[in-house]
Amino acid sequence: MPLLSLRMRASLKGRHVSGAERIISEEDIPSTLCELLRRPGEHDFMKLTLERLEEIEKLEFNMPISSYEFRSVEEGRDFALKELVLSGVPEDVAKKGLDLLSMGANPKGGNMRGAVLLDVETGDRLEPDLERGVRTVRVDWKDRSAVKSELLKRGFTERTLDALAIAFKNICCGVLAELCWSDDPNYLTGYVSSRELGYVRITPLKERGDPLGGRIYFIRREGVGELIRCLERRAVLISSLPQLS
Ligand code: COA
Ligand code: AMP
Q: Cα–Cα distance between 200 and 191 in angstroms, integer?
């Protein structure tokens, strides 16, 4: 049965306010369209993209998930630094990643529209466009509602559902480690993920009210073009419930 990628993005006065994507079969188009149409809050522009996927890779989710809470952002970020080092990122490069996200990784100020690619050996930025970055797209859960209810039951959020899918695809494409916190001023949980440690949720990684956030992908310079193609183009459908630890 052919599968399709349905993507939605919405903006208000030129500012991105909401994005989502699903990989679905034809029969699910009407219900998914309704869901995504209702998803953004206030917006004055919405774009929906529906495309047939020629090839799709089915992958079994196999990352452990863990959660840690700290009393302060400083403690949370110190812990994130240690987790990145345990994942094989040299300490100075891991620090550079944390500094970039804290100050806003867009050279023109503020957030980017995708992730920073950081050379794990030198700390050089490798994304072709430093304001845009690189986005991980064409990824979804095979049984999204079952995974969602399992995560919600365990006290996680719907954000975790989407972030887990992105983080898992990233590792499968060859990202060595990832650091993320949201640009939502009210969402303080972020994560480090890597093949070594799995998906490590950390609260708080930012102060309430802070509008800065983003993603840093720690990668090897060799094969960066291939990695970008994988992140942006390869369609991945993830099966099975996460084994929560
Ligand atoms: N942030 C800011 N701007 C974005 C954006 C984002 N996440 N996604 C799209 N845009 C804007 C950009 O201006 C982009 O232009 P660019 O390519 O020059 O950056 C423009 O919209 C066109 O984007 P488009 O090509 O239509 O998007 P896409 O096909 O790459 O799809 C989304 C991207 C919308 C699917 C993706 O960004 C997204 O939101 N995925 C879901 C992620 C998620 O669930 N996050 C929450 C938990 S972590
Ligand atoms: P969010 O978790 O949606 O708040 O996004 C946090 C940051 O991650 C954004 O500011 C972007 O810089 C980046 N980002 C958003 N979507 C993607 C994506 N699909 N792939 C890579 N980076 C993204």
A: 5
Which of 1-5, 82-86, 128-132, 218-222 comes out lowest in average pLDDT? 1-5
Question: Atom 16 of ligand 1 has which residue's CA nearest to it?
Answer: 132
Residues above pLDDT 70, as percent of the chain: 98
Please check whether residues 74 and 37 belong to one and the same domain: no
Residue found under tokens 């794990």: 120
Q: Indicate which residue's Cα is closest to atom 45 of ligand 1.
A: 162
The distance of Cα 199 from the centroid of its chain, to the nearest Å, equals 11
Q: Examine the domain organization and report whether 218 and 142 are in the same domain.
A: yes
pTM, full prediction? 0.96
What is the number of domains present in the chain? 2
Q: Are strands 116-119 and 214-219 parallel, antiparallel or unpaired?
A: parallel
Q: DSSP letter at 113?
A: S
**Residue 217 burial class via C-beta count within 10 angstroms: exposed 0-12, middle 13-18, buried 19 and up:** buried
Q: At what angle do helices 144-153 and 158-173 cross, to 10 degrees?
A: 120
- Asked if 102 and 27 sit in the same domain, the reply is no
Residue 242, ligand 2, Cβ within 6 A: no
Q: Which atom of ligand 1 is nearest to the CA of 19?
A: 39
Q: How far is the CA of 138 from the centre of ligand 1 (A)?
A: 11
